[in-house]
Specification:
alpha+beta, D-Maltodextrin-Binding Protein, domain 2, Dipeptide-binding Protein, domain 3, 2 domains, 6-stranded mixed β-sheet, 4-stranded mixed β-sheet, 16 helices, about 20% strand
Length: about 550
């Protein structure tokens, strides 16, 4: 089955809205359709970060999407249940050649930029080349720079992308599911230049930039002429406020100064009891224990016995029950840590790892552990603000089976250079830490990010046997047939599950507390694609 065939059930809507003097018309079939209600009022959202506070997507990352993403359109959209969709993206179709070393993108006809100019294949070519320029630093820009050979326009609405090596994750990179590659206006950027575009951007999305005050707010107005009338915003204005402190956000929500805030696990019960509606995307990340530099035979976690011992030593079910309300997370099951319920290769028959402290003690001895210090790097990030407290609990379980744990608090920004360095800055006998891989439903995107070596294009590199895995990743990346790729990924899932290469802790959601909001359709699987245009007032 080809990739585009899987999108059939998410195909373009058959609904057509006809507007004449604001009245509804009866079509020949007798079905009456209504013009969408005019947007009204202002939706005010307090968020904890504006990321880099940059409006040019090429100069930011996925974390910046809540700040600027509503101005632009995705090539391929995403459904609320975390699937690729042609309905909410600018592409009419996409297709690979026989081995996924080239991809053809075809636009819907008649789509407009905010200034009324039509979107064409020249914009596709320009956008990809713009993201490939040296200054671009977006999350998916590195993949384009490493693998895209060139882009050619076939006709006014069709472009072809040529790659150095096969890559079936291309659709995911051009969608909200795994990337941050939004289509950009060639004619406008060439006229005003990159600096002018960054200062006063223009896109084709459901929101138009209205005003902003650096470090304070950014405000958008609804694009009532948006090409997808089903997704014209329900509010006339969207106002995002930068409010870093959780307590301040909570107070503003309770006073009615804002309509929405992201919330932390400890606040869920009180907000629920106070009558606030808890909403937000599901399955956005998996909090995961990683064994750093375990591919090095000198590091203790290179041994299966040590990885398994540290896994069995913790009561993961008890920890989950104590720390995660249902609005915040689901218990993890389904195999290795990168294989959540939205992912290819997910196997619901694989249970969570068991708790067996006596077996953990036996395995520590069998693996040659003699009381060496284990460095446990402890930090929290955007996806898991509770992690430092969770790490204290994990460390207590390990100490109970005789592991010499040194829990080392560190800021996440200070930790990143340790794993991006070449060689990585981890050393024997043993170092561990917890990160939160986002869903990336292709699964290959997460394998590339977290498992393969730097030499094979990996970033975080934690798998114990990358000499083998690098080749497997390259092989599966060239399998175009979805069923065969699913089969191979499920095989890989079962293998790495039994190797205890990493430990999944919780399937994290991204909860928000809301007031006066009747409906919201963010994209499950993404903690950054908020789709504020789908918010509807009560």
């Amino acid at each position: 089955m080809k990739l585009t065939e899987r999108l059939g059930r998410y195909g373009r809507s058959l609904r057509r809205v006809v507007i004449v003097s604001g009245a509804a018309l009866a079509c020949a079939s007798g079905v009456v359709t209504q013009a969408p209600a005019a947007p009204r009022g202002t939706i005010t959202v307090a968020v904890h970060t504006f990321a880099k506070e940059i409006l040019d997507p090429s100069l930011d990352s996925q974390v910046g999407l809540p700040y600027h993403g509503g101005m632009y359109d995705w090539f391929i959209g995403g459904t609320p249940d975390g699937k690729l969709s042609l309905e909410t993206g600018v592409l009419e179709s996409f297709s690979p050649n026989a081995d996924a070393s080239a991809w053809t993108f075809t636009l819907k006809k008649g789509l407009k930029w905010h200034d009324g100019e039509e979107i064409t294949s020249a914009d596709i070519k320009f956008t990809i080349e713009y993201y490939k320029r040296d200054k671009s630093v977006c999350t998916a820009c590195g993949s384009l720079k490493a693998n895209v050979v060139g882009v050619e326009t076939v006709d006014r609405y069709t472009a072809r992308i040529r790659l150095k090596s096969p890559d079936v994750t291309i659709p995911a990179l051009f969608s909200p599911m795994e990337g941050d590659l939004l289509i950009l206006p060639k004619h406008y950027i060439e006229r005003v230049g990159p600096a002018g575009f960054a200062e006063k951007p223009m896109g084709s999305g459901p929101w138009k930039l209205a005003s902003r005050q650096i470090t304070q707010y950014i405000e958008y107005e609804a694009n009532t002429a948006y090409w997808n009338q089903d997704r014209v915003p329900g509010f006339a204005k969207l106002r995002l406020l930068l409010v870093p402190e959780n307590r301040t956000r909570l107070a503003m929500l309770r006073r009615g100064e804002v309509n929405m805030i992201p919330i932390e696990p400890q606040d869920v019960a009180a907000l629920r009891a106070g009558g606030f509606r808890i909403m937000g995307p599901k399955y956005t990340a998996t909090t995961t224990l990683l064994f750093w530099k375990s591919y090095d035979p000198q590091v203790l976690s290179h041994k299966l016995e040590i990885r398994k011992a540290l896994t069995l030593a913790v009561d993961w079910a008890g920890l989950f029950k104590a720390m995660y309300p249902p609005e915040v997370a689901d218990p993890y099951r389904g195999g290795g840590t990168l294989f959540g319920p939205l992912n290819l290769g997910y196997d619901p028959d694989l249970p969570r790892y068991k708790y067996d402290p006596e077996e953990a003690k036996r395995l520590l001895k069998a693996g040659g552990y003699n009381g060496e210090e284990m460095k446990f790097w402890s930090f929290a990030s955007f996806e898991n603000p509770e992690q430092k407290e969770v790490n204290e609990i994990i460390a207590g379980y390990w100490r109970a089976v005789g592991v010499n744990v040194n829990l080392l608090p560190i800021d996440f920004g200070s930790f990143v250079p340790k794993y991006v360095s070449d060689p990585q800055q981890f050393f024997p006998p043993l170092e561990v830490g917890v990160m939160s891989p986002v869903a990336r439903p292709s699964t290959l995107g997460n394998i590339r990010t977290f498992m393969v070596s730097h030499e094979a294009g990996g970033r975080i590199w934690t798998y114990w046997n990358t000499d083998w895995l690098d080749g497997v990743y390259k092989e599966i990346s060239g399998i175009v047939d979805d069923k065969e790729r699913e089969r191979r990924l499920r095989e890989l899932n079962n293998k790495i599950y039994n190797e205890y290469w990493a430990v999944p802790i919780a399937l994290r959601h991204f909860p928000w507390a809301t007031r006066n909001i009747a409906k919201w359709e963010p994209v499950n699987g993404s903690p950054q694609v908020m789709q504020f245009e789908t918010l509807q007032p009560e």
